[in-house]
Amino acid sequence: MKELRLVCILALLGFLIGCSSSSNDDDEMLPPYNNNNEALIAAQNYFNGSLKPIIDSKCVTCHEGKHNKNDAFNFGVFNNARNSADNMYNQVNSGKMPKDAGKLPQSEIDKFKEFMDLVDKI
Ligand code: HEC
């Protein structure tokens, strides 16, 4: 009788340990995925709401017209802008882009910087 009780207690302990360790694994897996997703959505929203209007009016005259739609330098497409976020900021901040035109106002340069920072968090 004593042995049976011991077996039951051991079985129960094993069950509890198994449950708690597997739920810990889940907790460790979820936050990074959620954060990445939130950072991606934040960068996409910022691109569509704040940066794309500037790119559409000041950049795509050359960057879409001279290249085809799938070209990496078509910055009106989020993935291309994301891949060139640093490069775009450096070009507008140094005044090299938009080519053959005056330097962008600081408020617009700041938006390229903000986008670059958001992309860094993805
Ligand atoms: C008048 C045409 C024109 C406009 C407008 C223009 N670009 Fe460019 N851009 C070019 C050309 C041409 C190149 C190829 C390199 C060169 O000739 O300087 C280029 C190259 C670039 C590069 C790559 C630079 C490198 O050396 O890696 C980036 C990034 C860039 N442009 C960003 C922009 C952004 C952002 C805007 C809008 C604010 C913009 N460009 C507006 C013509 C233009």
Automatic annotation (TrEMBL):
The lineage of its organism: Bacteria, Pseudomonadati, Bacteroidota, Bacteroidia, Marinilabiliales. Keywords: Signal. Residues 1-25 form the signal peptide. This is Cytochrome c domain-containing protein. It comes from the Bacteria.
